[in-house]
Amino acid sequence: MELETVSLGATGTRVSELAFGTWRFGHENDDGEVEIGEEQAHELLDAYADAGGNFIDTADMYGDGDSERFIGNWLADRDREDFVVASKIYWPTRPDDPNGRGLSRKHLRRQVDRILDRLGTDYLDLLYVHRWDDDTPADEFMRTLDGFVRDGKVNYLGTSTLEPNAWKVVKANEMEYEPFRLAQPRYNLVNREVEPNYLPMCDDYDVGVVPWSPLAGGFLTGKYSRDEEPPAGSRGATDQQFRDSYLTDENFDVLETVEAVADEVGASTAQVSLAWLLEHDAVTAPIVGARTVDQLEENLEATRIELSDEQFARLTDAKSV
Length: 321
What we know:
By secondary structure, the protein is of the alpha/beta class. The protein is built from twelve helices and ten strands. Strand 8 (180-185), helix 6 and strand 9 (208-209) form a beta-alpha-beta unit.
Protein backbone atom coordinates (compact mmCIF):
# COMPACT_ATOMS: atom_id res chain seq x y z
CA MET A 1 0.00 0.00 0.00
CA GLU A 2 1.04 3.62 -0.44
CA LEU A 3 -0.09 6.37 1.90
CA GLU A 4 -1.35 9.52 0.23
CA THR A 5 -0.15 12.97 1.23
CA VAL A 6 -2.14 15.94 2.52
CA SER A 7 -1.28 19.56 3.24
CA LEU A 8 0.16 20.13 6.70
CA GLY A 9 -2.58 22.49 7.74
CA ALA A 10 -2.38 25.83 5.94
CA THR A 11 1.29 25.40 5.04
CA GLY A 12 3.09 24.48 1.86
CA THR A 13 4.45 21.23 3.31
CA ARG A 14 2.83 17.90 2.52
CA VAL A 15 2.69 14.99 4.94
CA SER A 16 1.34 11.46 5.02
CA GLU A 17 -2.37 11.16 5.79
CA LEU A 18 -1.43 9.17 8.92
CA ALA A 19 1.41 10.33 11.16
CA PHE A 20 3.48 7.83 13.13
CA GLY A 21 3.68 8.41 16.88
CA THR A 22 6.72 7.18 18.78
CA TRP A 23 5.91 7.72 22.46
CA ARG A 24 6.58 4.05 23.25
CA PHE A 25 10.13 4.21 21.88
CA GLY A 26 12.43 3.75 24.89
CA HIS A 27 9.50 3.97 27.30
CA GLU A 28 9.85 1.97 30.51
CA ASN A 29 6.67 0.46 31.94
CA ASP A 30 5.95 0.08 35.64
CA ASP A 31 7.93 -3.18 35.70
CA GLY A 32 11.03 -1.42 34.37
CA GLU A 33 10.75 -3.06 30.95
CA VAL A 34 11.40 -1.02 27.80
CA GLU A 35 8.29 -1.29 25.63
CA ILE A 36 10.07 -0.68 22.31
CA GLY A 37 13.85 -0.86 22.04
CA GLU A 38 15.93 0.62 19.25
CA GLU A 39 15.97 -2.43 16.98
CA GLN A 40 12.19 -2.78 17.13
CA ALA A 41 11.78 0.98 16.71
CA HIS A 42 13.78 0.84 13.48
CA GLU A 43 11.67 -2.05 12.21
CA LEU A 44 8.53 0.00 12.82
CA LEU A 45 10.00 3.08 11.15
CA ASP A 46 11.06 0.93 8.18
CA ALA A 47 7.52 -0.43 7.82
CA TYR A 48 6.03 3.06 8.01
CA ALA A 49 8.47 4.46 5.44
CA ASP A 50 7.97 1.46 3.15
CA ALA A 51 4.24 2.29 3.14
CA GLY A 52 5.03 5.82 1.99
CA GLY A 53 4.90 7.40 5.45
CA ASN A 54 6.90 10.57 6.01
CA PHE A 55 5.38 12.27 9.10
CA ILE A 56 7.12 11.22 12.34
CA ASP A 57 5.98 12.53 15.72
CA THR A 58 8.07 12.46 18.90
CA ALA A 59 8.81 14.55 22.01
CA ASP A 60 11.84 15.41 24.11
CA MET A 61 10.48 13.45 27.09
CA TYR A 62 9.54 10.23 25.27
CA GLY A 63 11.80 7.54 26.66
CA ASP A 64 13.84 10.27 28.41
CA GLY A 65 15.11 11.31 25.00
CA ASP A 66 15.59 7.79 23.63
CA SER A 67 12.71 8.18 21.17
CA GLU A 68 14.51 11.08 19.50
CA ARG A 69 17.83 9.22 19.62
CA PHE A 70 16.30 6.11 18.00
CA ILE A 71 14.79 8.25 15.25
CA GLY A 72 18.02 10.17 14.74
CA ASN A 73 20.04 6.98 14.37
CA TRP A 74 17.48 5.69 11.87
CA LEU A 75 17.48 8.94 9.89
CA ALA A 76 21.28 8.79 9.65
CA ASP A 77 20.91 6.00 7.08
CA ARG A 78 18.23 7.82 5.07
CA ASP A 79 17.69 11.15 3.35
CA ARG A 80 16.53 13.55 6.08
CA GLU A 81 14.69 15.63 3.49
CA ASP A 82 12.30 12.75 2.80
CA PHE A 83 10.71 13.12 6.23
CA VAL A 84 8.70 15.64 8.19
CA VAL A 85 9.78 15.39 11.84
CA ALA A 86 7.84 16.89 14.73
CA SER A 87 8.87 17.09 18.38
CA LYS A 88 7.51 18.69 21.53
CA ILE A 89 8.80 20.70 24.52
CA TYR A 90 7.37 21.30 27.98
CA TRP A 91 7.65 18.40 30.44
CA PRO A 92 10.51 18.13 32.96
CA THR A 93 13.77 16.81 31.59
CA ARG A 94 15.81 17.92 34.64
CA PRO A 95 13.57 17.02 37.62
CA ASP A 96 15.78 18.73 40.23
CA ASP A 97 16.16 21.91 38.20
CA PRO A 98 13.44 24.55 38.77
CA ASN A 99 14.14 25.77 35.22
CA GLY A 100 14.13 22.28 33.73
CA ARG A 101 10.54 22.35 32.52
CA GLY A 102 7.91 24.62 31.01
CA LEU A 103 8.16 27.21 28.27
CA SER A 104 10.58 29.74 29.71
CA ARG A 105 13.14 31.15 27.30
CA LYS A 106 15.90 29.40 29.27
CA HIS A 107 14.27 25.98 29.03
CA LEU A 108 13.19 26.34 25.39
CA ARG A 109 16.63 27.40 24.17
CA ARG A 110 18.35 24.61 26.05
CA GLN A 111 15.94 21.93 24.92
CA VAL A 112 15.64 22.78 21.24
CA ASP A 113 19.40 22.32 20.81
CA ARG A 114 19.26 18.98 22.65
CA ILE A 115 16.34 17.83 20.48
CA LEU A 116 18.25 18.67 17.30
CA ASP A 117 21.34 16.90 18.60
CA ARG A 118 19.45 13.71 19.47
CA LEU A 119 17.69 13.69 16.10
CA GLY A 120 20.94 14.38 14.27
CA THR A 121 19.43 17.21 12.27
CA ASP A 122 19.88 20.97 12.08
CA TYR A 123 16.18 21.76 11.94
CA LEU A 124 12.75 20.51 13.00
CA ASP A 125 9.86 20.61 10.58
CA LEU A 126 7.40 21.16 13.42
CA LEU A 127 7.87 22.08 17.08
CA TYR A 128 4.91 21.79 19.45
CA VAL A 129 4.57 23.21 22.92
CA HIS A 130 3.60 19.96 24.64
CA ARG A 131 1.32 21.73 27.13
CA TRP A 132 0.45 25.33 27.90
CA ASP A 133 2.58 27.08 30.53
CA ASP A 134 0.53 29.45 32.64
CA ASP A 135 3.63 30.40 34.66
CA THR A 136 5.42 31.91 31.65
CA PRO A 137 4.05 34.98 29.84
CA ALA A 138 2.81 34.07 26.38
CA ASP A 139 4.82 36.96 24.96
CA GLU A 140 8.02 35.36 26.28
CA PHE A 141 7.57 31.92 24.82
CA MET A 142 6.02 33.12 21.54
CA ARG A 143 8.94 35.52 21.00
CA THR A 144 11.41 32.70 21.72
CA LEU A 145 9.62 30.25 19.41
CA ASP A 146 9.49 32.93 16.73
CA GLY A 147 13.26 33.24 17.05
CA PHE A 148 13.67 29.51 16.36
CA VAL A 149 11.77 29.95 13.09
CA ARG A 150 13.77 33.03 12.12
CA ASP A 151 17.03 31.21 12.89
CA GLY A 152 16.03 28.22 10.72
CA LYS A 153 15.94 25.75 13.61
CA VAL A 154 12.19 25.21 13.21
CA ASN A 155 9.90 25.47 10.18
CA TYR A 156 6.47 25.54 11.86
CA LEU A 157 5.02 25.86 15.35
CA GLY A 158 2.24 23.85 16.94
CA THR A 159 0.44 23.42 20.23
CA SER A 160 -0.43 20.14 21.92
CA THR A 161 -3.01 19.86 24.66
CA LEU A 162 -4.96 17.59 26.98
CA GLU A 163 -7.42 20.24 28.10
CA PRO A 164 -8.14 22.43 25.06
CA ASN A 165 -8.05 26.20 25.60
CA ALA A 166 -9.08 27.86 22.37
CA TRP A 167 -8.81 31.40 23.68
CA LYS A 168 -5.17 30.91 24.72
CA VAL A 169 -4.20 29.78 21.21
CA VAL A 170 -6.07 32.77 19.77
CA LYS A 171 -4.27 35.13 22.16
CA ALA A 172 -0.89 33.73 21.13
CA ASN A 173 -1.69 33.75 17.41
CA GLU A 174 -2.76 37.39 17.50
CA MET A 175 0.67 38.47 18.70
CA GLU A 176 3.17 39.76 16.14
CA TYR A 177 5.10 36.50 16.04
CA GLU A 178 5.10 33.28 14.03
CA PRO A 179 1.71 31.72 14.88
CA PHE A 180 0.78 28.20 15.86
CA ARG A 181 -0.06 26.58 12.53
CA LEU A 182 -0.88 23.12 13.91
CA ALA A 183 -2.74 21.82 16.95
CA GLN A 184 -2.40 18.38 18.49
CA PRO A 185 -5.44 17.72 20.70
CA ARG A 186 -6.83 14.41 21.89
CA TYR A 187 -9.68 13.55 19.53
CA ASN A 188 -11.49 10.32 18.77
CA LEU A 189 -15.02 8.91 18.69
CA VAL A 190 -15.38 8.94 22.49
CA ASN A 191 -13.21 11.97 23.41
CA ARG A 192 -15.09 14.81 21.75
CA GLU A 193 -14.31 17.76 24.05
CA VAL A 194 -12.63 19.72 21.23
CA GLU A 195 -15.75 19.96 19.10
CA PRO A 196 -17.70 22.86 20.66
CA ASN A 197 -14.93 25.50 20.68
CA TYR A 198 -11.47 24.22 19.83
CA LEU A 199 -12.15 22.81 16.35
CA PRO A 200 -14.09 25.93 15.25
CA MET A 201 -11.16 28.04 16.47
CA CYS A 202 -8.74 25.92 14.44
CA ASP A 203 -10.93 26.32 11.36
CA ASP A 204 -11.24 30.08 11.79
CA TYR A 205 -7.50 30.62 12.37
CA ASP A 206 -6.31 28.10 9.73
CA VAL A 207 -4.74 25.85 12.37
CA GLY A 208 -4.36 22.26 11.16
CA VAL A 209 -5.45 19.45 13.50
CA VAL A 210 -3.21 16.43 14.13
CA PRO A 211 -5.10 14.35 16.72
CA TRP A 212 -3.39 12.13 19.25
CA SER A 213 -5.02 9.07 20.85
CA PRO A 214 -7.23 8.35 17.81
CA LEU A 215 -8.10 4.94 19.29
CA ALA A 216 -8.87 6.25 22.79
CA GLY A 217 -5.94 4.52 24.43
CA GLY A 218 -6.94 1.20 22.89
CA PHE A 219 -10.61 1.32 23.86
CA LEU A 220 -11.69 1.61 20.22
CA THR A 221 -9.68 -1.45 19.17
CA GLY A 222 -12.51 -3.64 20.47
CA LYS A 223 -10.43 -5.46 23.07
CA TYR A 224 -12.87 -4.48 25.84
CA SER A 225 -16.36 -5.82 26.48
CA ARG A 226 -19.19 -4.28 28.48
CA ASP A 227 -19.94 -7.51 30.35
CA GLU A 228 -16.45 -8.96 30.80
CA GLU A 229 -13.41 -8.08 32.85
CA PRO A 230 -10.64 -6.32 30.90
CA PRO A 231 -7.99 -8.61 29.42
CA ALA A 232 -5.10 -9.37 31.77
CA GLY A 233 -2.24 -6.91 31.33
CA SER A 234 -4.35 -4.36 29.45
CA ARG A 235 -4.67 -0.74 30.56
CA GLY A 236 -8.23 -1.49 31.54
CA ALA A 237 -6.99 -4.14 33.95
CA THR A 238 -4.16 -2.13 35.49
CA ASP A 239 -5.19 1.54 35.29
CA GLN A 240 -8.15 2.64 37.37
CA GLN A 241 -8.25 6.07 35.73
CA PHE A 242 -8.55 4.39 32.34
CA ARG A 243 -11.39 2.21 33.62
CA ASP A 244 -13.24 5.21 35.03
CA SER A 245 -12.73 7.29 31.86
CA TYR A 246 -13.34 4.73 29.15
CA LEU A 247 -15.12 1.62 30.40
CA THR A 248 -18.49 3.38 30.72
CA ASP A 249 -21.91 2.48 29.38
CA GLU A 250 -21.93 5.61 27.20
CA ASN A 251 -18.63 4.66 25.56
CA PHE A 252 -19.68 1.04 25.07
CA ASP A 253 -22.76 2.36 23.25
CA VAL A 254 -20.37 4.18 20.88
CA LEU A 255 -18.27 1.05 20.50
CA GLU A 256 -21.33 -0.96 19.49
CA THR A 257 -21.97 1.51 16.67
CA VAL A 258 -18.33 1.23 15.59
CA GLU A 259 -18.60 -2.57 15.62
CA ALA A 260 -21.75 -2.46 13.51
CA VAL A 261 -20.10 -0.25 10.89
CA ALA A 262 -16.98 -2.44 10.98
CA ASP A 263 -19.12 -5.47 10.13
CA GLU A 264 -20.70 -3.58 7.24
CA VAL A 265 -17.40 -2.55 5.64
CA GLY A 266 -15.41 -5.67 6.52
CA ALA A 267 -12.88 -3.92 8.74
CA SER A 268 -11.70 -3.85 12.34
CA THR A 269 -13.09 -1.39 14.88
CA ALA A 270 -9.68 0.31 15.00
CA GLN A 271 -9.70 0.81 11.24
CA VAL A 272 -13.22 2.25 11.25
CA SER A 273 -12.33 4.62 14.11
CA LEU A 274 -9.32 5.86 12.13
CA ALA A 275 -11.34 6.08 8.92
CA TRP A 276 -13.80 8.40 10.67
CA LEU A 277 -10.96 10.78 11.52
CA LEU A 278 -9.42 10.47 8.07
CA GLU A 279 -12.69 11.57 6.48
CA HIS A 280 -13.27 14.36 8.99
CA ASP A 281 -13.04 17.79 7.35
CA ALA A 282 -11.35 19.31 10.42
CA VAL A 283 -8.55 16.73 10.65
CA THR A 284 -5.18 16.97 8.91
CA ALA A 285 -3.54 13.66 9.90
CA PRO A 286 -4.23 11.43 12.92
CA ILE A 287 -1.22 10.08 14.82
CA VAL A 288 -1.10 6.29 15.02
CA GLY A 289 1.24 4.23 17.17
CA ALA A 290 1.95 0.52 17.34
CA ARG A 291 3.91 -2.04 19.30
CA THR A 292 4.39 -4.38 16.34
CA VAL A 293 4.70 -4.13 12.58
CA ASP A 294 1.46 -6.11 12.22
CA GLN A 295 -0.41 -3.57 14.37
CA LEU A 296 1.05 -0.70 12.39
CA GLU A 297 0.12 -2.26 9.06
CA GLU A 298 -3.43 -2.87 10.29
CA ASN A 299 -3.74 0.78 11.27
CA LEU A 300 -2.36 1.98 7.95
CA GLU A 301 -4.95 -0.14 6.12
CA ALA A 302 -7.58 2.24 7.52
CA THR A 303 -6.70 4.58 4.66
CA ARG A 304 -8.35 2.12 2.24
CA ILE A 305 -11.73 2.13 4.01
CA GLU A 306 -14.51 4.25 2.54
CA LEU A 307 -17.37 5.18 4.81
CA SER A 308 -20.70 6.18 3.33
CA ASP A 309 -22.19 9.51 4.36
CA GLU A 310 -24.74 7.58 6.42
CA GLN A 311 -22.06 5.55 8.20
CA PHE A 312 -19.99 8.65 8.92
CA ALA A 313 -23.05 10.42 10.34
CA ARG A 314 -24.02 7.40 12.42
CA LEU A 315 -20.55 7.29 13.98
CA THR A 316 -20.58 11.03 14.58
CA ASP A 317 -23.99 10.89 16.26
CA ALA A 318 -23.13 7.87 18.43
CA LYS A 319 -22.05 10.18 21.25
CA SER A 320 -23.76 13.45 22.12
CA VAL A 321 -21.45 16.39 22.70
